[in-house]
Amino acid sequence: MASDGMDWNRLANFVLRAGVAFAFLYPPIAAVFNPNDWIGYFPSFMHGYVPDMVLLHGFGLVEVVIALWILWGRNIFWPSLAATAILLAIVIFDFQDFVVIFRDLSLAAAALSLALSNVPKKVIFLPAGKSV
């Protein structure tokens, strides 16, 4: 670490958290103003159970919670893991739009990195004397 007093690891962690959080904050905010631009990304099997706008904005609420929790920076293993799963599901279920959603794989890797760097000690069962 440099002697200038700057904690570069902490800054890097914040930048990573902010990047993942942005990916989860932008869609629900944009969906408020242009819902038709976003509802088409839901797979067809998800439509019809509730009105499309309830589906869109309900999922948007989940995205906002995940983003704010990750930005908060405390106990972010679970929201980072959820973010990873959501991003991978988007790629799997919207694979026909891979030319648009290919970046979600990079975002999923960033979210997984956050999860792995914040694994609670009680979640990993390591042999005695081993550390993460």
TrEMBL record:
The chain crosses the membrane at residues 12-33, 53-71, 76-93. The keyword Membrane applies. Keywords: Membrane, Transmembrane, Transmembrane helix. It comes from the Bacteria. This is DoxX family protein. It comes from Candidatus Kaiserbacteria bacterium RIFCSPHIGHO2_01_FULL_53_29.
